[in-house]
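Consider the following input, taken from an annotated entry for C2H2-type domain-containing protein (Aspergillus glaucus CBS 516.65).
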Amino acid sequence: MLPQSSHSPRGARRSSVGAKPRVCVHCGRSFRRTEHLERHVRTHTKEKPFTCFCGAAFTRRDLLKRHTRITHEENNPPNTGGLISPNSQPDHEENPVIQQRPPYDAPPQPAPRANVPIPVTSPAVAQWPGPPQHGTYIPQSQQMMNPDTSHAALGAHPVVTHDAEILEAAQLLLPGGYLGPPPPAQPMPYFPEELNHFQEFTHFLDSIGLPVEWLPTTTDITPPIHGAVPNDTAIREQPSSSRKVSDRSRGDSPFRSWLPSVPPGDQSLGSVSDYEPPQESRNPSPLKITEEQRQRFAYSLEEFRNVIPDFVLPSRHTLSRYLASFFQGFHSHLPFMHAPTLRINDHAPELILGICTVGAQYRQEHHNAERLFYTGRTVLLERMAREPHIPLTGYSNITVQVPISHSFHSTEGILPPEAAAGASAWRQIESIRTLLALMAYASWEPKQELIQEAFSLQSMLVRSLRDFGLAENVTVAPRHTPLQWHEWAEEESIRRTRIISFCFVHIHSIAYNVYPTLRSSEIHLRLPCATKEWKATTASEWEDTQREPSPPPLFFQEALAILLQPSRTTIVPDPIPTPLGNYILLHGLLQRIHLVSELSLPTGDHASSLPTEELNRLERALRAWTSAWQQAPESSLDPHNENGPIPFTSSALLGMAYVRLSLNLGPYRQLETRDPYLIAATLHRSPRPGRNYRLTPALIYSAHALSIPVRLGIDHVARSQAFFWSVRHSIAGFECAILLSKWLLSLAEPGNGHNLSENESRILHWTRCIVQEAYDSMDTEDDDILPNLEPATLGLAVIRVWSRLFRKNTQWRFINLLGESLKQYLAMLPG
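Applying the prediction step yields:
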């Protein structure tokens, strides 16, 4: 702040006609006092002229004094020697931001930017131009902003944007008698200048975990920024009991369990920079969205305002919640993006909307999920219409050029052909990921219009996959030697995106009994990398895995051919595929069963019979696959497996594969109708499985599928299955329930129950034990008691238990549909 002239009375200066107007050169706003103008200009230039000897810089002198008092008072007595003001900087200071102050009447000029190279690994952030010149998708407080000047105001303030809740909380920082600033000479900007510094307060609260939106509303509580920041060393020296009491006593946040200890020194006032490469980022959680990231996300949607005019972007806490739910829930079953290096502003906005759609579904916020789905779909279709994809199938090598900015439409015309192809490749892989996320949501929703959307998205996804290519010929640019962690992660993610898309398209074909639109013979990719490599959370951990000698994964076609080769001995792929690799191979075998079954004819009232030679080949392949699954070190039947639920889901699909060798229920479900009665009636007309030795594996896996939720607790699994029980698992359980029930009911027919084979007797005994355990543990009504353990009663009980499990599901309403259909099917059975 410049000193006032001693010979100029204050009143004379105010009334002076010849005084130059104090107007901001950036936004045109006028001020009554020069110090207010200087402080305001620093919100544009980001200048922090008040520097401490420890390196911390601040925009105001009082903030510097407060920092010195809090941080350095204990070890160093307060003195002016610890402060480095702008005027006391040495001439050789290398800080380009700190300059000599401008003359008194001249408006401050923006500080020159440091000539710092921008990493290419932070594309959407490095050249972010700031918010647009019109309203964003962030809701604003109508009381704090003139509607007629909102567009100009947003353009004038490129950084500071707040929710209405933030503005309300900001009022707590103002004096009790504050009535607002005097009417300005020009239209009122975004909100009063006194609130601009609330951004720093937001950073401080966010760094310690206190959500600023939930600031205490009582005015007698002093905001935390005015209190002393406790020394972390002293905190560590406290007894653990006293620390626990202190944590429990925090009454200033409804989420006090989120509050960690404050970092030492002044680190709590820093914010994580989005300019760092992923492997150097200090952000402890890539799934937590900051307000700056949300602002950039909102800006990236501005070019689509004409097609989504009414969309309001959720708060950063909501987005963080959805992002975390996606990766903890859906993504753990189909891991196609690398979470440790994820930076949301590096990705297309439609992809983030697709991810948040699935995340909202996992949070059971169905209305928001549907709204995000239609917004993401609209943005995706609009981008694909504006920027047609360049087919890449003719390229022997595809270089995916990670762009500097996601506003591709303005740069493609000046790029050389190779760079244009690389930018198009990036857009295509982002579109594929978006289609996969959107299809994952629409496929399992109960509304008919969403089912039609799912089939439309499936066609677009298959077409995009073929245009991009399904061969192992993709590299990411720029590429270093040796390969860096984030570069490797992107290449592995691109591989997984394509091969997991094949798996999801196939499970969609299984669920709705449609001919496979993407065949396994088209996949020429390697299987995914080792789980340890993928789950490394830092560059050093990943580098450690690279030092361990290991052969590269097999190609999908190569491993599938090993499983299907005609041999009397069991031959497994070498090296042993990872659990995800085994999951993908099982989809290849399931698709072969599907295609062969389509060519088979039914025999009487029994299921269609596959050719003997093909049956033998498929059974050998399933045995070899089981052996490979058992040899994978991460494989486990524990649904809470620390390595993820993929081995658990694979075991369910293995049971489905054996069921489909004996009973193809695909044409007898009609799940696409979403009508429980019609589905049940079609199931009731389905053929019976033929009783022979080939049926034994299917019966064993069907009984085993029922035993898992019974062992864990039917009602517990039904209500808490979100993060280890997938829709694919439910579809497999649905088919296993029908097969086991039909076999049990066939044993009750006259003459069939007296000639059981030894294996059938064991399976019958096992089923009795499982059903008895289920009924003993369930809260059943008086009319649901188990009268006996005869085969007919067991057949009905199996359907009743599975129906209860599916109907109590709270995650996907598609699973509720399965339960209601089984309930209707049970009512059609005799007894």
